[in-house]
Design a protein that fits this description.
Layout lengths: L8 E3 L10 E4 L11 E5 L12 E3 L2 E15 L2 E5 L3 E5 L4 E16 L1 H8 L4 H4 L11 E3 L2 H19 L5 H24 L9 H13 L6 H8 L3 H12 L3 H19 L4 H7 L5 H12 L3 H9 L1
Parallel strand pairs: 2-4
Antiparallel strand pairs: 1-2, 3-8, 4-8, 5-6, 5-7, 5-8, 7-9
């Protein structure tokens, strides 16, 4: 096996929400600023973090070949075993609580596939990215796991022996691999291998990711998108399976869970960071969405 130096570098976490959690950025110095993809075995990856919470700035897929324990994605725990596949979308906080972990990692920046396809919605349509952390996993049969490793190994070798046309081959291989994983995911989760998309819904999701802590009214987002609140909610129900307010509340709850689990900020400060001026209202909101108060959630998960 050719050794691949899949090194990462770290920068500090932004001030909103999860201060103190390491941010992991794609190392653009390794192959050059245009080759924004890497494939490698966990045991070869310098800087692979086990035991410490960290946030990725790129898309990541790992096919586990060895190990046991737990993989935490935001506040959701997944069992680690051979054949498990975990998908990380940029911005999610994760932590490995495992023994003897090994597997094959595929990670890339969004721009790498966008430039190839000229299709801004491709990654949004994949069922395993931009999804609830609880659903960001897949369990492959031994035969399917071998087939997936057989897809990834030529990519790893291509990176180890880079040539002028490697970037085109790697983009094609990545595209094929992502679609193959979508089919496996769809079969297990009984969902279409591609989500339907709509430009208004996609833009709404971008705005929510950016503005959720400071804008809690669907009417504000609808005004930005030049549609009525009712029409926006109807589009979200059709393309996301839930109305616009449910989408917004889900993002707020996900960020609250992340902060409660990975920071020591008081519940009042967590609520304030997410735009809740009244700590009591934040506590009621969180309990309505999760069935627990923020303090109960934090104490339970940390135990």
């Amino acid at each position: 096996m050719d050794e691949v130096d899949a090194s990462w570098y770290f920068s500090t976490m932004p001030s909103h929400g999860t201060a103190g959690v390491q941010r992991v950025a794609f190392d653009r110095r390794k192959y050059g600023r245009h080759l924004l993809i890497d494939v490698g075995w966990v045991h070869d990856l310098r800087g692979f973090l086990v035991g410490e919470p960290h946030l990725l700035e790129f898309f990541d897929i790992i096919v586990v070949t060895r190990g046991s324990g737990w993989f935490w994605l935001d506040a959701h725990r997944h069992a680690v075993r051979p054949g498990a596949v975990f998908f990380t979308t940029p911005g999610q906080v994760r932590r490995w609580d495992t023994k003897h972990l090994d597997g094959v990692c595929l990670f890339f920046e969004e721009l790498f596939i966008k430039e190839f396809l000229q299709d801004d919605a491709f990654l949004q349509r994949l069922p395993y990215f931009h999804t609830e952390p609880a659903h960001a996993s897949l369990r492959l049969t031994p035969a399917a796991a071998r087939r997936m490793r057989a897809r990834l190994e030529p990519m790893r070798r291509e990176l180890a022996h880079y040539r002028n046309d490697s970037i085109d081959l790697l983009r094609a291989q990545l595209h094929e691999t992502l679609i193959a994983l979508a089919r496996e995911y769809a079969a297990e989760h009984r969902t279409p291998p591609q989500r339907a998309t709509h430009r208004v819904v996609a833009r709404f999701m971008e705005l929510v990711e950016r503005d959720a802590p400071r804008r809690h009214r669907i009417a504000d987002y609808a005004a930005d998108l030049a549609v009525s609140p009712g029409h926006l909610s109807a589009l979200c129900a059709e393309y996301l399976g839930q109305r616009a307010k449910r989408v917004l509340d889900s993002v707020l709850v996900s960020r609250a869970r992340r902060m409660l689990l990975y920071t020591d900020e008081s519940t009042a400060r967590v609520g304030a960071a997410l735009g809740f001026d009244d700590p009591s209202y934040f506590s009621r909101f969180f309990r309505r969405e999760t069935g627990e108060t923020p303090s109960e959630f934090r104490n339970t998960l940390r135990r």
